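Re: Re: token formats

Sure, here are both.
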Amino acid sequence: MASGSDVGTGSVPGLGHNGGPSMEPGMIWRTHAWRSAQKKLMPNTIPKLVLQMRLKRAAELGMDYKTYAKVRQTSGQDVLGLLFSSNALGLLRDPHLPEGKGAALARVAHAGRLALVYRPLAAEAVARVNTQLDTVGPAPVFTEGWGAMREKVQGVMRQRGLSGASVVVIGDAPLEREWSTAGRAAAYLTAAEYFGAA
């Protein structure tokens, strides 16, 4: 323990000292200086290499960087799958993807491209004519219960070996927002948010 004669002499703090400002007169200024020094040592910016990698990953997923960063921060992990509703894809009666949306899905890299389609479309027919989709299943409808919705949403994820936390749901109807909760998904985006970015 330091003696009274050591106070203010610039001696090195002893074991157990946290390196913070002392409690002597002038404490407010020393506290300010100490906190400023700490902030300078801990930058708020992402390292350039990490930023470049994340920009590239956002582009691979067809997302703008801001959206990708928000999803990643919320889920705590990378996006490994995109789950589209047939409404979001513009599939109504014709099983073929519209040209622009088909091209956007073709550019997606290193992520599963999943879809849930409503009747009268058949999941098998949509999968057969659209090579841009990896896995297609039947969409839950509002007359089915929560359990059926959860099973259909999580079922198509399981077919690709994906956990919900690594999948972003992209829909275009109020019911489809609930797919995100049912599948424990990383996030929900509207078709306009996703394809607007693409």
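Second one below.
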Amino acid sequence: MAGIRSSLFKAARSYGPALSRPASSETSHNFSLKRRASSQTTPPPLSTPAASDPVFEDLEFDSSFLTPALPDLAKVPTPKDRSQHKTERLPGSRYQFHPPKYDRGPLHPIQSPRSSDPTARDFVPGPFHNNRLRQTYHSTIAPDLMTLTYTHRPPGTKQESTPQRLRSWDDSSPYHKNRPLRGPRGDPVLRQLEKPITFRNVPVIRSVTLAAFMPTAIKEPDRMVIARMVTQAITGTVPEITEVKHSVSQWNIVEGQKTGLKVTLYGNTAYDFLDKCIHLVFPRIKDWEGVKGSTGDSSGNLAWGLTREAVALFPEIEANYSMYPAKLIPGYRIFVETTAKSDRHARLLLSSLGVPFQGELRD
């Protein structure tokens, strides 16, 4: 087979010059165009071993067998490199916007931009994700709260006026003039008035605070280290260490000692923590009836507690349970601050989110 191929190749080489001489003028014209098109290509350098090989003499120079290697691409300049080579720059004091440092009132000609403007000094980027519990609140829960608390009043119905809860002065002294009204007798706590829920004041969660008190951390510093690790794992926020405000001799506590920590969550972080509590922790607590219905401060803020066994049920702790000693995991007091004006409205908000309540309900 090799001999046949070599003989055929030699025969084609011998008839090559004869075929290159056309008989007619038309054939000569077409052949001259083809030769002119092929002669425009630049031959490869002689240093290429494929060009000097006689086997590739009849091949076109633009063939892929003889294509030279591509040169190394030059380094593409970055925007920083281009900015450093600029010779003319605009002065920043005249052509760059700087928001004012101080707010000089609504009538001042120069006003600070909104916090949503990237040029504002108090601009905070985000949110970077859409919380599922928060989205459910805005799409379903908020309209339902207005429906559940709606009170129909026919036209012409007289609304009962709220009586004056503060006492006035008897004007027996000239110093009583223009003084604010006095509180009720007996120094009781003046509760907020429960206003009907409308589209303007639908209760919403403002913040969630976690607090842990560990008096034994004075003698065992490892408890504070583990508590900070656990708190940061389940909240995603670095906690703040708290100190004792008053000395307690029974507990051998001196004022100023570090015995606890706390962290306050806002926005999506607060909703993420509540979402984990409602759907992952509460259903798995054994022999737990729910949050007491008597909780609250009469101003729309509710609270409950979690033991160390309940804290171990958070997915961040359960996935790395061997990292945290079981006896050093702290318990928490959780305070939920809402915009509701009464505990009844706050309880209605949290129960619609999924928090279970049990026992006697207190308004």
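The domain at 205-358 is CATH 3.30.1440.10 (50s Ribosomal Protein L5; Chain: A,). Residues 293 and 359 are 5 Å apart (CA to CA).
- S.
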